[in-house]
Amino acid sequence: MFRSMLFVPATNEKFIAKAAERGADAIILDLEDSIPQAEKLNARAALADAVPRCRSAKGQVWVRVNRPFRLCVGDVEAAVKAGADGIMLPKTESSEHVRFIAEVLDDVEREVGRTSMTPLFCILEDPNAVLTAISIVGSHERIKIASTGSEDLATVLGAAPLPETLRTAKKMVHLATKGAGRFSFGLFGTVANYSDHDGIRALVAEAKLHGF
Question: Among the four 29, 158, 181, 204, which has the fewest Cβ within 10 Å?
């Protein structure tokens, strides 16, 4: 399980050049939120070079794909062919969603001759996903990690992304994830202010008390 993840836009050459030196347990090459719509296909194409460059002796390289299926299928295929260690699946909505992606992975792995199963990190970012979390996180053996997406869930709810507004949803996903025997990842608060080291330490300590 990861202690730390470093998100890196797949098209940012400056960040990619130094990502492997930062000591993170996992580099998450991002094709989603950090990439403008016009650059989505360029970011996908960049994975072939970026994945091996970001890999270090201690860390893995995962890829956060896009949610629209039209983009997602191509993203998953490119990530596997580039040798990514896993797929981060944002806006995971249902067990059917998971099984569809798993089927795509089956086909691509067979095509490239990959014998190990590519794991999934599911991010639940919608009220309906939170309410059906147990069926989602237990729907396929590829799922190894699950979490609640703070900012996107808050946006859907029309709420501020604060611990008091998201605590119930995060606990629900946490319980479902632990009940399914997966790793539950996350904090009750946001790390958007990543320079607040003391605040982040406090969030980590709190999450650990709850078993995250």
Answer: 158
Distance, in Å, from the CA atom of 35 to the CA atom of 19, rounded to the nearest integer, reads: 17
| DSSP conformation letters of 16-80 | HHHHTTS--SEEEEESSTTS-GGGHHHHHHHHHHHHHHH--SS-EEEEE--SSHHHHHHHHHHHH
Q: pLDDT (tens digit, 9 = 90+) per residue, 58-73?
A: 789 999 999 999 999 9
> What does DSSP assign to residue 86?
E
Q: pLDDT grade, residue 4 (50/70/90)?
A: confident
At 132, give phi and psi (nearest 5°): -115, 25
Q: 54: Cβ–Cβ under 8 A, 6 or more apart, which residues?
A: 8, 16, 19, 20, 27, 29, 61
